[in-house]
């Protein structure tokens, strides 16, 4: 080979089109494994058949660990190894089609070429390229046969995340932004910041052909625990020193901030932020991934498939154990095969980057096969017992007396946990319910059989549990029943009106003393501030039902509300001569509406006006108003606009200009905050034409 550096034409446009990587904004070749790409280079004087190529990745490339491949020109593509096939030659250049095996290690490769005939001359560097997973290739572990699903779960940059609670599901848009500038580089450096890489770089890199390995490792790097990862979690309700978790609208800003700060954890995340960032990273690397929301999600800290909640005599949630039931929890599903478990466990796998419990000594979770969860195969790798409990645990509600330490079972429920499990539809902006993919129908014999099977596999059936309620306690029947009914709008800025309905189930009169409390909470149902309390004593005639209206004025809860807009209302009913009855309801208040209008047609490289309209619904002034706007292919980065204070009932009309730079259906995301309302979100689809 001549001493001159060969010049390489990577055919960026054609290769990107063939490999579904056109959306990346990069000057570097980005291709998918198990598929050919073409390069042309000049500066080689030797006959082509004497050329040998070397592709290598990681800090210590070696053939043994499959991080280095040496291959000459052959007439056909190899299925198992790297290969090169001659396309064409001219007097001073040669075009070669290079193929990688479908199980190649992913990451950034250096490609060089050497002449075999010229003895010991050193290889000439052709440059670098990035190799990704390939869900379009049938030989790949992440192969997905449905092309529309590939588009959604790998190429779609907009997502919808479901939140609220089981009585009141709401949703908001998210900009995954996996193709934004520098995100791929950040994802590659994330892999190099894992504990596994720090302990043994060469071995870690050699495992990067395996989606289950990378999914598990990256679920740890997305949270800051253990490894100074991307996001620091905070569920305290106080987010000083950082951004409140509900204020983010996309992953790009978080990942960019992490890199800019020299990889210091970004403050702050909660479950949907961890899940959204993991979605971005895995989609970027080519693993089909989506976010999943589980309503009434159990956090079973002690692994007994049971969640215990304790209340004092006044009805306050005592927050005594690490067990909890979250209004909702968001995790990920990624699509790949499970050769380690058997083909029936392939398909969607649960990964969870939210730091809840340690697994293998660090905060990581999954991949747990969704099929294994449904069938109660909790002995299979990884973390199936924890995920199984999130959707299936039984709930026990206790009264606890702190002075005597005595606890009394109020009631137990086996159908509360794991409801309305939700994800965004493919190619549509709506909710799809996947509860039946996680478990058999609640209350069916099959569902109870699976629960028993899981308990047995965990060794819980044969072990005496001194903390468990006795069968007598579980079978006891209350004399009265109760529920809270909503009587009016559930909106921030309006009074909260409820009705407590109590019914005597017996044919003799009952005297009941009721202690009621309302607390503001975060979405994990952790109590933050007491808002209101009251107590009443009543007599219920035989079979009588009585209603008691409750009003909590906005002025009473406004100061105490968290950014989650959640309130837990509890009534503990002490029935004379009978067992106590707990009535509770978790309430999520809606923010006022905000409106976006695109004024005119959106065209590539042409200015278009957008107007955002917000009316202050309360009878006091709102200040510190800030509007945040982002949207892929519509604007670069994030636009922040300060809005003057708004008097009672005043409307603000904020106008700004966009210059879209790609055609197609795009999403514009808006986040509006002020001193009285946190993070009012909305999104709008904008159809950009040429």
Automatic annotation (TrEMBL):
Top-level EC class as recorded in UniProt: transferase
Keywords on record: Acyltransferase, Calcium, Metal-binding, Transferase
Domain Transglutaminase-like, residue spans: 263-355
Annotated catalytic residues: 271, 329, 352
Binding-site residues, Ca(2+): 392, 394, 442, 447
Molecular-function annotations in GO: metal ion binding; protein-glutamine gamma-glutamyltransferase activity
Catalysis performed (reactions): L-glutaminyl-[protein] + L-lysyl-[protein] = [protein]-L-lysyl-N(6)-5-L-glutamyl-[protein] + NH4(+)
Co-factor(s): Ca(2+)
Pfam families listed in its UniProt record: Transglut_C, Transglut_core, Transglut_N
PANTHER family associated with the record: PROTEIN-GLUTAMINE GAMMA-GLUTAMYLTRANSFERASE, PROTEIN-GLUTAMINE GAMMA-GLUTAMYLTRANSFERASE E
Protein name: protein-glutamine gamma-glutamyltransferase
Organism expressing this protein natively: Chloroceryle aenea (American pygmy kingfisher)
Lineage: Eukaryota, Metazoa, Chordata, Craniata, Vertebrata
């Amino acid at each position: 080979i001549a001493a001159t550096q060969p010049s390489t034409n990577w055919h960026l446009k054609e290769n990107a089109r063939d490999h579904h990587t056109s959306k990346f904004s990069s000057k570097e070749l980005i291709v998918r494994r198990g598929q050919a790409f073409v390069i042309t280079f000049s500066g080689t004087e030797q006959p082509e058949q004497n050329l040998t190529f070397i592709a290598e990745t990681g800090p210590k490339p070696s053939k043994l660990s499959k991080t280095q491949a040496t291959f000459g020109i052959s007439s056909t593509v190899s299925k198992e190894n790297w290969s090169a096939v001659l396309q064409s030659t001219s007097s001073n250049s040669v075009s070669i089609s290079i193929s990688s095996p479908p199980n190649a290690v992913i990451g950034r490769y250096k490609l060089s070429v050497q002449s075999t005939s010229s003895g010991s001359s050193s290889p000439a560097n052709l440059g670098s390229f990035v190799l990704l997973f390939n869900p379009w290739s049938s030989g790949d572990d992440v192969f997905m046969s449905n092309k529309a699903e590939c588009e959604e779960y790998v190429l779609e940059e907009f997502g919808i995340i479901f939140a609220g609670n089981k009585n009141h599901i709401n949703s908001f848009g998210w900009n995954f932004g996996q193709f934004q500038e520098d995100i791929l580089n950040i994802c590659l450096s994330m892999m190099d910041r894992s504990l596994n890489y720090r302990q043994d770089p060469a071995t870690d890199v050699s495992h990067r052909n395996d989606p289950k390995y990378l999914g598990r490792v990256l679920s740890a790097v997305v949270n800051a625990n253990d490894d100074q990862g991307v996001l620091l979690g905070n569920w305290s309700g106080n987010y000083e020193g950082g951004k409140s978790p509900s204020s983010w609208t996309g992953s790009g800003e978080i990942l960019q901030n992490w890199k800019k700060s020299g990889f210091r954890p970004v403050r702050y995340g909660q479950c949907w932020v961890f899940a959204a960032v993991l979605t971005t990273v895995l989609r970027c690397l080519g693993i089909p991934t989506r976010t999943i929301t589980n309503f009434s999600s159990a956090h079973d800290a002690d692994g007994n498939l049971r969640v215990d909640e304790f209340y004092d005599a006044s009805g306050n949630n005592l927050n005594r154990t690490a067990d909890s039931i979250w209004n909702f929890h968001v995790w990920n599903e990624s699509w790949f095969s499970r050769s380690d478990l058997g083909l029936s466990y392939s398909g969607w796998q649960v990964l969870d980057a939210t730091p809840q419990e340690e697994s293998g000594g660090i905060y990581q979770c999954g991949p747990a096969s969704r099929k294994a969860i449904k069938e109660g195969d909790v002995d299979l790798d990884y973390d199936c017992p924890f995920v199984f409990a999130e959707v299936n645990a039984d709930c026990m509600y206790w009264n606890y007396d702190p002075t005597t330490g005595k606890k009394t079972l109020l009631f137990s429920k086996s159908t509360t946990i794991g409801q309305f499990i939700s994800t965004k539809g493919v190619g549509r902006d709506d909710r799809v319910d996947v509860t039946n993919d996680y478990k058999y129908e609640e209350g069916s014999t099959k569902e109870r059989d699976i629960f028993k099977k899981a308990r047995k596999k965990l060794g819980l059936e044969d072990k005496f549990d001194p903390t468990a309620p006795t069968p007598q306690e579980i079978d006891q029947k209350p004399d009265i029943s109760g529920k809270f009914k909503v009587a009016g709008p559930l909106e921030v800025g309006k009074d909260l009106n409820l009705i407590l309905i109590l019914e005597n189930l017996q044919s003799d009169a009952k005297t009941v003393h009721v202690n009621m409390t309302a607390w503001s909470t975060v979405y994990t149902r952790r109590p933050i501030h007491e808002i209101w309390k009251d107590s009443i004593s009543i007599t219920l005639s035989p079979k009588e039902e009585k209603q008691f209206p409750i009003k909590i004025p906005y002025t009473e809860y406004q100061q105490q509300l968290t950014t989650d807009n959640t309130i837990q209302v509890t009534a503990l009913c002490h029935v004379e001569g009978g067992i106590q009855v707990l009535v509770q309801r978790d309430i999520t208040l809606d923010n006022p509406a905000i409106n976006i209008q695109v004024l005119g047609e959106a065209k590539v490289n042409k200015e278009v006006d957008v107007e955002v309209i917000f009316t202050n619904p309360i009878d006091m002034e709102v200040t510190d108003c800030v509007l945040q706007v982002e949207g892929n292919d519509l604007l670069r980065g994030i636009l922040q606009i300060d809005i003057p204070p708004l008097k009672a009932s005043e409307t603000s009309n904020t106008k700004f200009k966009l210059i879209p730079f790609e055609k197609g259906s795009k999403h514009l995301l808006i986040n509006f905050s002020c001193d009285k309302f946190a993070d009012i979100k909305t999104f709008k689809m904008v159809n950009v034409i040429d």
